[in-house]
Amino acid sequence: MSSLENLLSRVLPENKKFELLHLQSPPKESHSVFVQQRSDCTQTVVKVQHFFGLGADEKIFYSLELFVYLTIESSKAIEKLIFVSKADTNGYCDEKISVKDITTAILDYIVTLDPSHYLSKEIKVSGTSPGCGPSITRCTTTKRALKILKARHDSKKGDNCPNRGFFRNIEGKDPDWTCKICLFTRSEPQYLFSESSRNPKKHILSGEQLLRWWLSVIDKILVRHFDSGTKATLQIPGEEESRTLRYLSNNKAPFWRVGDIFSGKSSELAIFAIPVFPDDPKGRFLEQVVEENRAKKVRLSDFWVELQVQQEFRLGCTVSVIGVDGRIPKKCFGPHNNEVIVMPSKKVFSIVKSYIVGEQYDTSEGAYEAYANLRDFLHLRMQRSLLEIRGCRKSSEPGSKGTGSDRNAPVRPLNTLTVRRKVKKSI
Ligand code: ACO
């Protein structure tokens, strides 16, 4: 596996210096992304968040947030599910870059990251988590929930669940795990860079352009890494199958089809077949279904039809759900030195992330501040630094934006006098 530095260096312009923040939250036992009919005592789900921020000329200009859910059985990862949550830019990059290629490079890295990397340290299994016994869901009555909690408490004493306790990576085993990718595409003026839509230089793809953009990213990942038994799906709520198929016609990987990777039969109850991710609009609709007491009525086929009527899905903007389910035949490796900062706790992870997402980007000041605060925090509090990456893509190479007329605007000089440095946040 190439290092993250190499992967990014290949898509960044020659001789320009970039700096990368790559944060990882500490792996933690989590609920399954599905509401389970019966919980599987032999499996445990571990959730990890990754957050990337890319900067140049002392400004952060790009961010990507994603989650990895590892399913573990007998101390071994059997599934790595990557939920790509949000990609965003703020328009303050003075270089000619391809955000699509940057995003593809990061996904190249995440997809081929050995799952046992997440298990290389001991993971504390929470006593109240649903590793064993039935899960507590919104459908569970209070009386039943109390019974489940008591059973969990009792089972902690005479612990007979094979996955309870600590995990250790089993080194030297052949990779035998499936890799899933899920994402929901919906264009918004801004996601991670507040007020950045007020920067006239920010480029925002429309819903349809964004869908094609993500299809092209995922298609490249499929061609590069996945084996021939892979399933890749596109679902556009409310769109006819023949129209959805048109979006797939230019894709290079042969496994694309209309649908989703999770559904079993269309007669299956949606509540058990649709995964729920953080800040996920289809998850919000599932919650609504439960609140309306329709959890045991809404079948998968009804779910997609009803979803299109939801406000988040019907504002005239094309939204879609993209999925991949397959295997990666190549041997995967752990991260290279210095390319990931694994945070000691979720709290510190959120503090460092907030240096980027907590700024306002209506002017370039936010981009300068985010960079300066990150650099100083990492240096002073963690004795770490942003990863320096020198681009090596020649302007004549395909994918280079060397000739794009809209991107040839003169680089604005850095006026350091206008940059206000914030008082450092402390842990
Ligand atoms: N003027 C004209 N065209 C431009 C400009 C510009 N200023 N900047 C880029 N382009 C063109 C590129 O040349 C390229 O064209 P091509 O496809 O013909 O080669 C195309 O736009 C895409 O350019 P990229 O550099 O790959 O991407 P972009 O800069 O548009 O960034 C992004 C993509 C991050 C989605 C951006 O549009 C954005 O920040 N959108 C707002 C937030 C958002 O909706 N995020 C997606 C959420 S969904 C999810 O993340 C799962």
TrEMBL record:
Catalytic activity: L-lysyl-[histone] + acetyl-CoA = N(6)-acetyl-L-lysyl-[histone] + CoA + H(+)
Main location: nucleus
Residue numbers spanned by region Disordered: 393-415
GO molecular function, one term: histone H3K56 acetyltransferase activity
One annotated Gene Ontology cellular component of this protein: nucleus
Enzyme Commission number, as recorded: 2.3.1.48
Alphabetized UniProt keyword annotations: Acetylation, DNA damage, Nucleus, Transcription, Transcription regulation, Transferase
PANTHER family: ALTERED INHERITANCE OF MITOCHONDRIA PROTEIN 6, HISTONE ACETYLTRANSFERASE RTT109
Name recorded for this polypeptide: histone acetyltransferase
